[in-house]
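Appendix B. One record, verbatim.
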Amino acid sequence: MQYRSIVRIIGLLVMLFSLTMVPPALVAVIYKDGEGATFMQALVISLVLGLIAWYPNRNVREELKAREGFLIVVLFWTVLGSIAAIPFLLSSEPDLTVTNAFFEAFSALTTTGATVITGLEHLPKAILFYRHLLQWLGGMGIIVLAVAVLPMLGIGGMQLYRCETPGPVKDNKMTPRIAETAKALWYIYLALTLACAGAYWLAGMSAFDALGHSFSTVSIGGFSSYDASIGAFDSQLINTICVVFLLIAGVNFSLHFGAFSRRGINLKNYWRDAEVRVFLLFQLILTLLCFMVLLDSGIYDSPESTLDYALFQAVSISTTAGFGTHSFSEWPLFLPVLLILSSFVGGCAGSTGGGMKVVRFILLLLQGGRELKRLVHPRAMFSIRLNNKAVPDRVIDAVWGFFAAYALVFAVCLVALLATGLDDITAFSATAACLNNLGPGLGDVASHYGDVGDVAKWILVLAMLFGRLEIFTLLVLFTPAFWKS
């Protein structure tokens, strides 16, 4: 294990990350909210910590293999999540404990969107902007991780299924192709963010709210500047804009990369992709189901407003954004539990969405169908095909392995939360919401996580990391074989 090289890289990352304290400091100056000094202090602290890690190892240049890659990816989220907590610790408004500061920072960076803060409208603008910015940076980190880094490490899951586009190949060291791909993804991500911000602004949001909420929308994070979330704007147009960009961000960014390549714009690639078709069909069915139940219950005044609430909440929860226009936990019958369960599906592979990813559920269903056929015709040979291509059995095995690991981690986190004293509904929904990087849950965590105990919060932080790192990336560190030479 090349520990000095790993420390050097993490030191560089921390120094780069320290620059994220500059925009909130500028916002503090513009709005004169008194938080400028907080972010400058955080900048100095994080810069010094990065220098301490980087400087002694600055001349170390060793080739990194897959094993070091796993450790760097995990440290990327854990170290930067810890550094991100510094402004929350230094700020007097909100006055957060150490546990709450770390919970808020990790929730933002992993784009979970669970918060311990109430009274968001009264917070300094710099703090609100910083929360949005963390989610935006976390969303970009997810994209680069999913499309450029994890294939290199040979992760059996998120990128075992990839569209036919130029991009990185599985390798044991960093290549120029990965840097080029990451750069192109940045441009796509930035363009989507600016388009979303412009649409929000034209729809009536202030420039500050438009930019902040575009950060949280494109990253499928779900943080808002208001306790009432998107519902604070009371605008069907804003709700529709949010839904459109959540759906765009929920699609594999490799497809965006391929659709807008140097060879010209080719939108047919989207519809040719089986995962996108299932993803959109799933959103449609979920929306119609919510609409019919809500219409029958007569909660809202008109069919138009019922459709608006049903569409927004179905897309927001199932893509794991977690924005709200109305508390879905108060909806009738089975809808609250249905929406929480829909977050397990999440977005497409290679998107900013959380959950287990649509493609895995497609492969699980196809494998289930194949086993049924084998029962009827034991000697027949059946292959699983996706996008008119045979899927190797090793991919199916990897998906089953991921599903088993996901269920195991979910069960362990759920039992651990129950042991802290949480009731069944709260523990179940909180585990699902954090493991799927969703945010809002049911019961005591329907609106915020401020009333949850400290031990439970640390368990949920771990669940956020497991969900964001695709389970195996973090789980492999707990195996003795990983640490053996």
